[in-house]
Amino acid sequence: MYAVAFTWELLSLGPKGYGDELLWGALRTLQISVFGYACGFALGLLGAIGKLSGGPLLRGVLNFYTTVFRAVPELILILLLFYAGTDSFNGLLVTLGYEPINVNGLVAAVLVLGFVQGAYSTEVLRAAIQAVPTGQVEAAKAFGMSRTGAFRRIIMPAMLPNAVPGLANLWLNITKDSALISVVGFTELALATRQAAGVSKQYLLLYLIMQALYLTISLSSIKLFGRLERNLRRGQPDLA
Amino acid sequence: MRWEWLPKYLPNLMFGLGITLQILVISVVVGFLLAIPVGLSQVNGSRFSKTIAGGFCSYIRGTPLLTQIWLLYYGIGSLFPLIPGMRENYMWLIRLDAYWYVLLAFTLSFAGYEAEIMRGAFLSVPKGELEAARAFGMNSGKVLRRVWLPSAVLKVLPTLAGEVIGQLKSTPLIFTVPVMDMMSVTSKIRQDTYLTYEPLLFLAAIYLILTFFITRLFAYFESYIPVRR
Amino acid sequence: MTFKKLLMTAAAFAVLGITPALADLKMGVAAEPYAPFTSKDASGVWVGWEVDFMNALCAEIGEKCAIEEVAWDGIIPALQAKKFDAIMSSMSITPERAKTIDFSSMYYNSAAVIIGPKNDDKDFSPEHLSGKNVGVQVSTTHSAYIDKYYAPKGAVVKTYATQDEANNDLASGRLDYVMADGVALDAFMTSDQGACCEQKGAVPIDIDVLGPGVGFGIRKEDEALLAKVNAGIKALGDKGILQQITTTWNLDGKVVFPGMK
């Protein structure tokens, strides 16, 4: 049961091999990355809009948020948010008169990653929104579009292609930051591999496979984002 | 908030700070020096060296630094018992402190990211300058040394501050292997005192102060960079 | 059209993450192998002395239990943050920890030992270990013991997040000694990797640092749960179930537990 001799069976997908644990770990990594990214994107959108058209108080809060969350190392943020987040959430529930609930590990990991990403997304999206030619926004107003209408139909489509390189970078960052979640004990790919290696002692082999899985995720993401950018830029004049 | 633990652990934190800064400075300097040939070979090299350099950069940028550290320290560590005669003849290699593995991982990581930036910088030097240097009769080595390299390096210097701060923000990962950096000390404080937030908040504050100083330092040196008008 | 596809894939993804909250009682276990008490077998199922003990206890007190994994060095804050209801991870009862959380009555105890490479040197006193690399797991009674007795005499202490990693470094030669629980180290030394090493001896007992044994960690306000668990432990001891579990895992003579004959 303890140190297992190296056989290819180690990597099998069945109960005797660790192949399935690693693949499940990779799936979990993708899960928290995708949902964390979505949260971060949503927060980033709200933050960017807030920074551009909000009052001084809102802008002050958002400036604090982006400055601090981009200056403090992600690992420390993740640890702080993981414990503080659930504590304050439960504290809020208690003061409101509800029973404190146990926040699911997945939800906690997603929210933590999302909050950290939100600070970076805010800056990327803000820059992209500011890059939309003001003429188009003024034309929308001249047409009588409401602000949300103008945002949805004019600003967003024009902003997204500009934001894609920054967003692609953020996606690659979150897939790598998801490994940091392992220090709070959430079993994504890094921790799953660490556990499997701990039992089987095949550190080198399993860690190499884990790196190969991360590489697969990164390289396919880069290809996908390339296609996304081409898709979003259809109809626009080609970049030089 | 309870801060009574601070005076007791301050010497440990200062020691940890020293280790963190050592790893930061050495990995940045050596990594940058390493990035130059790697970036250059992606632009100028044979097909073989292009593939090697490209593969290296893909690996560094496509996998988390945390797992890169684990692969180096625990992966190589697991090989030692398998090599016969290792213990008798190469004990010094086995006893290599985790500090060196971390230093290697951080250096390679910085080199990987900087190489991409250097590649872009090498490509963006106007071809005209290189052709002019050739026309003067300089051989490849001279062109590189006197025209291409200085131009490229001057182009990347403004981004260096951001990269160094990025490297600084990666340093807490060190605590996952047995090295006594600031995060390890903070971890120890958290275990001894069972306080969750105060040690982490203090550490976050230290990192904020370090970031501030590094930004100021680079801003000061930026005034010395010649900018063509 | 693509938006709908996106929504559907997102929903499918999300469903994979929803774990049914059927368990009434969640036990926090450190997410690392700690054989023979808790470890994951190749199919990802938790097995071990403590796992069997947990199942028996929950049957006894009439609760459904589930294991919640968490990092060892954050296990007490996670308990406070209500991520689970009790810590069941070979956590020793110490006065220091008892300031923050409550402990159940102890459910097993075993000696703390120091192991090292096979040689004639059987001395493991603090003076002898001066200048040597000693490995311990972070946040354990063993690291507290090493800090108290060995570090002041000059031992170079290396802390690891998991006991496994410390064992590995001892096997590869990076460490000279490791101090940890005798039973866990036995499991290591009987493995292929552990053939390098032997036990040097059990350390002199210091009850304040090492504690009287291992117990459940429970939040201070959960007094009802504490009473239930204590009653369950006593019942398991009286019924001889703890003896059965110990024999199944070949630990007779290596651990003491309530209800031992």
Structure characterization notes:
- Helix content of chain A is 76%, strand content 0%.
- Chain A is mostly helical and 240 residues long.
- The longest helix of chain A is centred in the N-terminal third of the chain and has 35 residues, at 19-53.
- By secondary structure, chain B is mainly α.
- In chain B, 80% of the residues lie in helices and 0% in strands.
- Chain B has helices at residues 6-44, 47-62, 65-79, 86-89, 91-94, 98-124, 127-135, 140-170, 182-193, 197-222.
- Chain B starts with 5 loop residues before the first helix and ends in a 7-residue tail after the last helix.
- In chain C, α5 links the parallel β8 (133-137) and β9 (156-160).
- In chain C, α2 packs across α9 and α2 (49-61) runs antiparallel to α10.
- Chain C is 37% helix and 19% strand.
- Chains in contact: A-B, A-C, B-C.
- Chain A binds chain C through residues 1-3, 5, 14-18, 20-21, 24, 27, 30-31, 34-35, 38, 79, 82-83, 86-87, 90, 100-106, 182-187, 191, 194-195, 198-201, 203, and chain C through 10, 13-14, 16-17, 19, 21, 26, 30-33, 35, 39-44, 68-71, 74, 77-78, 80-84, 162, 164-165, 168, 187-188, 190-194.
Task: Give a concise summary.
The complex is a heterotrimer of chains A (about 240), B (about 230) and C (about 260). Chain A is about 75% helix and about 0% strand.
